[in-house]
Automatic annotation (TrEMBL), chain A:
Lineage, top ranks: Eukaryota, Metazoa, Chordata, Craniata, Vertebrata
GO molecular function, one term: structural constituent of ribosome
Annotated NCBIfam families: rpsB_bact (TIGR01011)
GO terms under cellular component: mitochondrial inner membrane; mitochondrial small ribosomal subunit
Species of origin: Cyprinus carpio (Common carp)
Protein name: Small ribosomal subunit protein uS2m
Top-level division of the source organism's lineage: Eukaryota
Stored HAMAP family: Ribosomal_uS2_B (MF_00291_B)
Classification via Pfam families: Ribosomal_S2
UniProtKB/TrEMBL annotation, chain B:
UniProt-listed Pfam families: Ribosomal_S9
Name of the protein this chain belongs to: Small ribosomal subunit protein uS9m
UniProtKB keywords: Mitochondrion, Ribonucleoprotein, Ribosomal protein, Transit peptide
Species of the source: Cyprinus carpio (Common carp)
GO biological process entries: translation
């Protein structure tokens, strides 16, 4: 029975990208979970949005941590993007200050979503085109057991995947952008491609970035090493937590290992 | 417009109106014809049925069906049905097929050994080649067209193995970049640079930082070429990628403590073969009487000569068992023989015994002269050797007979030119 639930959820992630089905609260899922042995477990798999913080990720960071990591520092007034204005607290001596309360909310939502994707064994791709932090991000991805792409983005990597890679390739289920701009200060091609392929994205948007196509934008500083290290640490801890929880559930409840 | 996809065909929920059933059945049969596995259902899309008002609704139930449906069949060229062979790329072999071929090869090898009456256990590839050449003699000029029996790994082109596990998760963390081995190499190099910088900082903190540390010896080696790196990585890289890699390696080398990563760097250097353009001086040998002698060879055009130079002699020269005066009646040839000894000033010191064959008298004399010069090297000092080289005594004359060309009398001579 639980296996049926899982295969249903898996098809959701694998097959036609009906991402909305994961979020649907009306039980239009592929299972009749009525007679499930553990309702708590199946509940979190089928109705993830009923619990806002299943993995208790809000204890990973505080507002003070964000401030000390200089996440609130944006770019100068001249670089400001019009669509980022709602997220800005104000500007001080021409430097934009990002509203950390909004950032904390967005970050918590983003981490929660990442945790849920990792819990279901989704493929997470870390993307950034900042050469300063490329190595750090690749190392973080390797330590979580996920994937990274901090190099030149070739045109059809997502949209022409069966030719770029091999016919049966599985695309990422979530893309994390640690900086949404590329080296010429234009929006990263991956954001548009992910939107085309119905792949949800989480992105750290600075005050000069466009947050519109990103599913879970997180307004914050993407230039300072302290801030980037903090983000990497947070996402790594989230993913590891989710995977550990999954392994724990599999051992305890004997759910089949296939996600 | 109604297009069916392979995946949805299996689903029962697509039971449509009465007209649809016909289409559905024909689509199914079309699917089977059009080879579902390789080319997908592209062929099916060519059968497009236009419904009146029901064009957009996929899930039409029976109750809603209308008896009279205006059906218009759209005909498409049959070339759409055919599989696009060019687009498929080089033929792909499954792992099971390759394994079966390997099995058959091993069994066939044993049969062949039995046939030839040899031991199947110690039957090597050379034996196989020999046996096949014996059993299937072929007069074909093209060696690659002759019958061959080799291990399937050498015959079937290597294909990259599937790079993800049963759940579809790729094995390598940089898989989605497209060039996983190359970028992981860059990642490793950068990691090493960071490690050396940390080491430097530690040494600085302790106050032990020095710039004159052990340097890696790079003389006599070169960086691997782009092709060699492509071979190692088993994937193609561009020229810019290659240059970037070399840049990073140079950066690594420029750091003071680079000797920590010496063996990593040397993996990317190739030792150049020691190019000894200098002729090796023949060793001085001693015969039972204690007399020193040396042996050397020389060639000119197609004449081959071999000389034995014996010390404490009196200037006798014997060639092919005859005295040089008899063998070379022409003065010029005798001068050629004499010149090396004259040059080093050891005219009456040596006894020369030589054998020569091939070509004409002048070429034989030249071959002998070269052989004498080479033999003299072991009796002469370093400075003299350099002088001999500058005199041209040690250079083999590269001139050979030029071939005759068609449309001409000889190599250069042309037929009589006629104005009209």
């Amino acid at each position: 029975m639980a296996a049926g639930v899982l295969t249903g959820v898996r098809q959701v992630l694998r097959g036609p990208r009906l991402v909305s089905a994961v979020f649907s609260c009306h039980g239009q899922t592929f299972s009749s979970a009525a007679a499930a042995p553990d309702t708590g477990e199946t509940k979190i798999l089928n109705f993830p949005l009923t619990q806002p913080d299943y993995f208790r990720l809000s204890e990973l960071f505080t507002l003070k941590d964000l401030f000390e990591a200089r996440v609130h520092l944006g770019h100068k007034k001249g670089c400001r993007h019009r669509l980022m204005e709602p997220y800005l607290f104000g500007s001080r001596l021409d430097t934009d200050i990002i509203d950390l309360e909004q950032t904390a909310e967005h970050l918590q939502r983003a981490l929660n979503f990442t945790a849920h994707v990792a819990y279901r064994g989704g493929i997470i791709l870390f993307v950034s085109r900042r050469r300063q932090f490329g190595h750090l991000i690749e190392t973080t991805a390797r330590e979580c057991g996920e994937y990274a792409h901090t190099r030149y983005w070739k045109g059809g990597l997502l949209t022409n995947a069966s030719i770029q890679y091999s016919p049966g390739v599985r695309l990422p289920d979530l893309i994390l952008f640690f900086s949404t701009l590329n080296n010429v200060f234009q929006q990263h091609v991956g954001i548009r491609d992910a939107a085309k392929m119905n792949i949800p994205t989480v992105g750290i948007v600075d005050s000069n970035c466009n947050p519109s196509l990103i599913t879970y934008p997180v307004p914050g500083n993407d230039d300072t090493p302290v801030a980037m290290e903090m983000y990497c640490r947070l996402f790594k801890m989230t993913i590891n937590r989710a995977k550990d929880k999954r392994r724990q559930m599999e051992l305890l409840k004997g759910i089949s290992a296939s996600v | 417009m109604w297009i069916c996809e392979c995946g949805i065909l299996q689903d029962v929920s697509l039971q449509c109106a009465k007209g649809c059933d016909v289409v559905f059945a024909s689509c199914l049969s079309a699917c089977r014809r059009a080879n579902m596995a390789a080319s997908g259902c592209r062929g099916v899309r060519s059968i497009l049925w236009k419904y009146g008002s029901y064009g957009n609704n996929l899930f039409v139930s029976r109750s809603k069906m209308v008896p009279q449906l205006p059906l218009r069949q759209i005909y498409v060229a049959s070339s759409l049905w055919k599989k696009n062979l060019a687009a498929a790329g080089p033929q792909k072999f499954t792992q099971e097929f390759i394994d079966k071929q390997v099995e058959e090869f091993e069994v066939g090898k044993r049969h062949l050994a039995n046939m030839m009456g040899e031991d199947p256990e110690t039957f090597t590839q050379e034996d196989i080649d020999r046996s096949i050449a014996y059993l299937f003699p072929s007069g074909l000029f093209e060696k690659r067209a002759r019958p061959v029996m080799k291990h399937p790994e050498e015959i079937f082109p290597k294909q990259t193995a599937i790079q993800w596990d049963a759940e579809g998760r790729p094995f390598h963390f940089l898989f989605y970049t497209g060039k996983q081995s190359y970028y992981s190499l860059l990642h490793d190099v950068y990691e090493k640079i960071l490690a050396i910088e940390r080491h430097q900082d530690k040494m600085r903190n302790k106050g032990l930082f020095t710039s004159d540390t052990k340097q890696i010896l790079l003389t006599g080696s070169r960086w691997l070429l782009k092709e060699e790196i492509e071979e190692n990585l088993v994937e193609n890289i561009s020229v810019q990628d290659y240059m970037r890699l070399i840049q990073l390696m140079e950066l690594l080398l420029s750091m003071p403590y680079c000797s920590l990563e010496e063996e990593f760097i040397l993996k990317f250097r190739k030792q150049l073969e020691v190019q000894s353009s200098k002729y090796e001086i023949p060793a001085l040998q001693y015969d039972p009487q204690g007399v020193a002698f040396s042996v050397a060879d020389g060639r000119r055009k197609s004449a081959k000569a071999s000389i034995t130079l014996r010390d404490s002699g009196s200037g006798n020269i014997t060639i092919n068992g005859r005295n040089y005066l008899h063998y070379f009646p022409v003065l010029q040839n005798r001068e050629q023989l004499m010149f090396p000894l004259l040059f080093v000033g050891m005219m009456g010191r040596f006894d020369i015994e030589g054998s020569v064959e091939g070509s004409g008298h002048s070429a034989q004399a030249g071959a002998l002269r070269l052989a004498i010069s080479r033999a003299l090297l072991s009796f002469v000092s370093e400075g003299e050797v350099e002088k001999m080289r500058q005199a041209g005594l040690l250079t083999a004359d590269p001139r050979i007979r030029e071939r005759k060309k068609p449309g001409q009398e000889g190599a250069r001579k042309k037929f009589t030119w006629k104005k009209r």
